[in-house]
Amino acid sequence: MKWMKLLLVSMKNNCHEMRSDEERSSDTDNIDSYSENNSCDGNDEECSSDPDNIDSNSGNNSCDGSEGCSSDTDNIDSNSGNNSCDGNDEGCSSDTDNIDSNSGNNSCEEMGSPEECSSDDNTEMDNMNDPKKRLRYLLRNWDAENPCPRKAGNDLLKILQDYKKDEKLPKDWQTIKVLPKKLKNFLNHESKEKCGGWYQYLGIKKNLSLMHELISSCIENTILLAFNTDGVQLTESSTNEFWPIYGKIQSGKPFLIALWYGHSKPNDFNEFFQDFVEEAICLEDNGICIRKKQYKFEIHFFSADTPAKAYSLMVKAPAGYWSCTKCRVKGQRIIRIIKKAKVGNRNKKGKLKNKLIKKGQKNKKLKDKVIRSNIHFISLNEESRSTSDYYNVANDCHDDDDDDDDRSDDFHKQFTILSNLRTLDLVKDVVVDEMHASNGTLKRFLNALLDGFVVLNKRIRKVINPKNKNSLSSLLVNLAFENYYPMEFARKPRSLKYLPFWKATEQRQFLLYTGVVLLKPYIPAMHYECFVMLCVSMRFLNSYDKYSDEMVTYAEALIEQFIQRAIELYGPTFVTHIVHILYHLPKDAARFGRIQKFSCYDFEDANFQLIRNVKSGNLPGKQAVERYLRKRFLCGVRQSKKIISKKTICVRDFYFQAGRPGDQFCAVSNNFIKIESIKKYGDEIKIFGRKFQQISPLFETPCNSKDFGIYKVEKLSSSLVSFSPEDITGKFYPIPIGEKTDKYGLIKQLHH
Fold first, then answer.
1. Which candidate in 81, 412, 493, 689 could, as Cys together with 393 as Cys, close a disulfide (CB 3.0–4.6 Å)?
2. If DSSP codes are grouped into helix, strand and coil, which group holds residue 674?
3. Which three-class secondary structure state does DSSP give residue 257?
């Protein structure tokens, strides 16, 4: 019954949400239409092949000798998944005779011209209009979005055959899952052994062919590609990992360019990026033609967490002395020597009672104990790195030895193939990931408050005692229980006892919203001001699309104050690599806009979806790629829809609801209003609410909270005010202050 309910709901939605011919052809039917023939008439014998086990090189590539199917094999590499290009115009032109028909580097005509896609559009629409094929078409698309096990699918077909006797349905669910011929052509890439694991390259061009609407809105006809890579562990019980290469343009969703699977990370990252770099160089030199329109192509930025960034650029890991990718700062390490002979209590006669000496070791020579701190970075205003360093790396490489800290610069390990990308600046365009930097710093700060901070075997006392920790946890749980968190947030606030398990979005919610209100009564002023500096600097960098030089200088000053205050409170070892790179975030924001645009949140979500595509341990890489393409091709890139009631309205991508505390607070001009009801009078919507009479800043040091959208409000008016949705200027996250029901801390919402 569960599968039947899901099917009926999906079929109903598909019937009401069918797109027009132009929309359908613009985002999914721009793939080559001249490849394998995959017709199916419903017979089990002819259509019973398992699409999850399709060999990407197999297929019915027939040729009748006509002009459209040349018999000359000199220019066709039947096993190529490697899109090499020497950068010459002739080698990368739109001449289809010199293009590998199985590669990701397709010609202009192959990138979905209207003439070639029309026949496939008609086939898809015929399936929808033909009553005998409509249900089969809906079942295939439904299975792509909600993968159904084979046994459950067979049971479902038996039920449907009793009710839909006029439609010819197969007996085996695997027949329903047969791929369209255009999607089989997309999958026509040979997987191979590479870098010590399984590897499959899909290509940049073929992915861009699915995003015509998004590409058509590119500024100055230039496609700006951001790319990312990271390791994803499949299960906790093994070391098997995925290493995908993702691409992203503008505000679109990430798409898969290549996937590597193995027992650890790739053994050679230059070889791992080789196919990607070769195709990107070809596109940089010659551009890309989609639907008979020529576009320029550039690499926008490279985003990754610090370990993946170090592997990709062939530089020092985050724990190294010269590990910063932005500046030439040298890390420091504090060394403390404890003489064991002097450790312990003395008896009445003055003789040492050394408790560190074990039985049988009293006559042995004692050794001094050496304690080393972690590598930390105190200096901030160091010389910036240069891209030319990556080209001269052969003269700068050294052996990896962290103890030899007297060398001038030990940053590069070896040459990186990414330096061949002409439009990628390996210093300015390799961005600091806000997700890992700010959340990692927050976790270090909270651990210092809750558990104390260890410096050379000495623990600084706790700032928040267990009683206050329980009180804070209760407030966080209460926000979730009484629905004070906005519906735009995917996760509810959780207790501090789950801090080691907080996800990135939970940490961001505490840093930018809840923490600045909840921590104030429980920590001393010096520690609170330190947290405020971190909070307002991250809010400031998330607030604007463009940053001037003065704004960048101001943001750098805020982060510098936070780092200096943290050194005073917790010692220099607090400023590890993850804390130091925060200082470079403002310059990245000046180049690319608000830091949310180049963070790894979207790519981490894509990693989660990729892992969900693996259903068994048999060829997990192949499973992930085929199910990913099935969802993308058959379902498209659908935005998640929120289930809203009649009392809910959406204004500028923010949702407001009268009966839910987290969605009741808004700003109208300079007034803050708590929404009481939403009513509709014909075509006009009216909102009624009560206005707060007292508005004040939540804090005034080190800066005024009003400048960053943080307020303290109280005393609701007795009379109602009415306004229209167009009058709303912002939505606010409410956090109750004290026991009063009309006193709140309001934080302007930046994310939706």
1. 412
2. strand
3. strand
